[in-house]
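Sorry to interrupt, but I need a hand with the structure work. Go ahead and set the record down below:
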Amino acid sequence: MTFTFLDHDADIKIRITSPSEGGIYEEIIKALATYSADMPIKAVKGKTITVKGDDRKALLYAFIEELLFLIDTQQFIASKGTVTIRGNNLQAELYGDNTKNYALEAIKAPTFAEMQFEKTKQGWEAIIVIDV
């Protein structure tokens, strides 16, 4: 499982690959933490979230939106997680820390622009653009 930041004029563009569909979500957690924080985020607190989407892209969008919601409203930034997907429903056990312990870059919202999420011969691949 890997994530790579790609060039984009104004926003964050991330390419994620994983042998499993759930691994895509686990990597997006790490990618957002890496982009956002001035240092590695400790996994000292846990939270469970559940999100739904009409399809894979909508589910990925809802997941990222929920991660950003936790940062904005509960001062919680995830650094890792375990994700379970059943149909268009996702449950994640997130581990992270209080945002007050870090200097964070602002991230506004995910977008559907340029979004891809598909099964490949090697597993799964997603590309997501996030508004900053």
The chain has a mean pLDDT of 96. Residues 56-74 form the longest helix (19 residues).
